[in-house]
Amino acid sequence: MNFDDAIRLTEVLLGFAFAQQSIEHFKSFADEQRLFIPRFILSVLLIIGFQTAWVALLLFVLGLAILHRFQGPYNGGSDRMSLLILFCLCLVYFAPTQRWQEIAFGYLALQLVFSYFFSGWVKIINPEWRNGRALCDVFQFSVYPVSESLRRWRESPRVLFVMAWGVMVFELIFPLLLLSHTSLIVALIIAASFHFANACLFGLNRFFWIWMAAYPSILWFQLRFLITAD
Description:
This protein is mainly α. The chain has eleven helices and no strands.
């Protein structure tokens, strides 16, 4: 994937994610509508590729306004990743040279790698993740709208123990998967499947689309790294 294609794919995926999120607020409070209806319009413009530099800059400013409205990232990690992607895109658009554009986009790729690695590190130093108890609590006490049949997973501690270690090991070795293009593709498919499962099971759909929007950066970065190394 070349640089221009990766940027364009990031724009489309990010615009789709923002448009989907914005629709949820169309019938909300008036102050939220004043933020999310313009965000929806800007998202459509980003998808079609109209004045993407200025559209992304306006989306970034709106993102800061939304942070102020909800007194922080009300969707946690997905909001932070959204602003990070927008910030890096703005740096790409307004950077004076191709080299600085690539540095900005490469920074996004590295942050994506670190997001998985540090997530795994936080889990593995937690004894409740190491013994599988953390996942049991997720299924038993989750505040998300999960079915009773899904909550029965708490009755299978051995399965949840294996699942917990599978998640931790995958996240910790994620940086090593950059060494091979094939392994990176497989890793991204696994990671996307994990986010998709969380979206279906727990309603965490925002994480799926936002992390997908960051994937073109790491695909470009990995190829660019191998070419430079060769």
